[in-house]
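Changelog entry: the 3-oxo-5-alpha-steroid 4-dehydrogenase 2 record was regenerated in this release. Current contents:
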Amino acid sequence: SMQCLPGLVLALSSLLGALALLQLSLYLRAPSRYGKHEERLCRPRGQLPARCAWFLQELPSFLVPALLLALRSPPRLEPLGCRLLCCLFCWHYFYRTFIYPFFTRGRPFPLQLLFFGMLFCIYNGFLQGYYLIYCAEYPNDWCTDIRFTSGLLLFLLGMGINIHSDLLLRQLRKPGEVTYKIPQGGLFTYVSGANYFGEIVEWFGFAIATWSLPAFAFAFFTLCCIGPRAYHHHRYYLKTFTDYPKSRKALIPFIF
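Regenerated C-alpha cells:
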C-alpha cells in the first residue's frame, strides 16, 4: 500500500510554489488568451464548448483524491478534522465539476489551455489528497482549534462569494449572448474580480484550516494565477466602458 513520503510532499509543494512564480511572471504583463482577452484575429484552431471544457478540466481534482481515499487500506476515517478537510477540497471540486459547467455561458475554450489545466488538476489533486489521506496528522480536537475554525469560516465565506459572483456574471448574458457587460451587485460593487477574490479567500482559508505546506503552496498558486487575471479584467473594463465605476478596485476592496 502507499506510504507517506515527506520528501515527496516537500518536493511537490516546492514545485507548486515555483509554478506560481512562473505564472506570475508570464501573465502579469499580458493576460492568457481566452475569454475576453482572446485575440480575435488569431483564434486557436482547437476549441471546446465552455461547459465541456470546464467539466473535463476540473474533474481530476475531484476524482484523484477520491481514488486515493478508495485505495487506502484500511480506509482513513479518523481524526474527524482530517476527514472534514479532505471533504472541503472535494466539495469545492464537486461544485466546479458537476454543477458550475452546466450553468456557465462562457466562450469556447482553447484545447491547449484545457490540456495544461487538466495536468495541473491531476498534479494538485494528487498533492492535496496524498497529503491529507496519507501524511497529515491532526490531534483529535483539531476541529476546535482556532486555525481550523477560522480557516473553515474563511473557506465558506470565499466559496459563497465565488458562487454568488458567478451567478451575477451569468445573469449578465441571455442564452446565446457572447457580449461583455459591466458586472453589477454583490462584491462587484467594490472589485472587478469578485469571483477571483472569493476563490483566493477560499483557498487561503483552506490553507489555514489544514495548516500544511501543500495547501499554502496551492493558495499562493491561486493568487499568482487568477490575481493577474483580475487585474487584466479590470483594465479591460476601464478601457471598454466609458461609464465603468472609477471607484472599483481590481481584486481587493479598497486596496488594489
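The first strand starts at residue 47 and ends at 48.
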